[in-house]
Amino acid sequence: MQFLSSNSGVVNPSSLQVDGSGNLTFTAAATGTATITAVDLATGQTSSVVVNIADANAVNSFTLAAPSTMVVAGQATTIPYSATNAFGQAITQSSFGPSYQGDITWQTSNSTVLPVRSELE
What we know:
This protein is mostly beta strands. Helices cover 0% and strands 28% of the residues. The protein has a three-stranded antiparallel beta sheet with strand order 1-4-5, with no helix packed on it. It has a three-stranded antiparallel beta sheet with strand order 6-7-8, with no helix packed on it. A two-stranded antiparallel ribbon has the order 2-3. The mean pLDDT is 82.
């Protein structure tokens, strides 16, 4: 049996392995789409499956919560937020630090009352 990948940048063919239970396993190299094809070298029969690899830290939903205390003019206030990925798993707030590659824009309806800092903490 031979296993092929249509996109070695996403699924490297050398990572395609059959485990002890007979399942085909691989380690995704990057996000994207690849077609994995199994070829029976004796008969020429083939079977293929398309796999879509998502970024585990790509934000699928993002929710802001109300501050836990009364907001007082002149004092810094923290607004809690939560995010989940495409798999419904929580993304930690540290994922939104300086190395985050996504686009997040913070906006306010009244910057005189509520100025927004652009950096994430």
